[in-house]
Amino acid sequence: MLGLLCKHKPQHPSASGLTIHLNPTTQHPRFQDISRPSPPPPPLEPVLPPPSSPDTHQLATDSKKPGTMADVSKPRAKQPSSPAKTAYLVLYNFASAVAWSVVLGRAVSVFAVRGPQFVPFAVGEWTRWTQTMAGMEVLHSLLGVVRAPLLTTIMQVASRFILVWGIVYPFPYLAQSPFYTSMLVAWSITEVIRYSYFALTLSGFQPRFLTWLRYNTFFVLYPLGISSECALLWFATEPAGQRSELAKWVLYTVLLVYIPGSYTLYTYMMSQRRKVLRDLKAKDQRASR
Hints:
This protein is an all-alpha fold. Helices cover 66% and strands 0% of the residues. The chain is built from ten helices and no strands. Helix 7 packs across helix 8.
């Protein structure tokens, strides 16, 4: 019995005798036969554009119209000034040029014939109201009637208001100084040229000699006018101090403000001069072609 059991004892198969049979149809793709041709890919369906909606068509049409988003990069033509505005500015500049011509003529003639002490009696009142009318320029700049910078306009008008109403009017004897006459000469020549230039330019004329005077005479007239104004302000500090100590220090403050203010006005005219002369040069080059 023991021998029979030993004879029929099950034998474990060895690893070397193990045989694995794989079905070719179930092999992993990386082990498939590469010699077998792969099936052709399915045909691609054509991708059609979506139907255009009315909004899409309108957007494409509007992009070709001026004033839309597609036309933003195109420069727009400058809107011309209204005839009423132009007529008003021509009249204002013409009247101002005439008024300052009266100041210039009277100041020079009286100074030459009778001396500086008689100049304020001949032209002082006229100068005060002529300069007061120039206060309209602040309103013009504020409302956008003209493109002049508001700060520069206020500085120039305010300084002259101080002279005619705050210095000469309460202390009329200061106007008998030669500095008053030199101040009026500088003011009046500057304004006659400036207002005449603007009146003719707005009317469609631009004489070259007037343009040259407008952007070159300030080299002399501005220092003459500013130095004369500062001299009158300095002379007024003592009588103003007798009335009020505060008024005296206000005038000292105004004199200090003249330092940056004069620089601002002068550099502004320099920049305007460069711009105008550059435009004239470009215009001449285009005309010569």
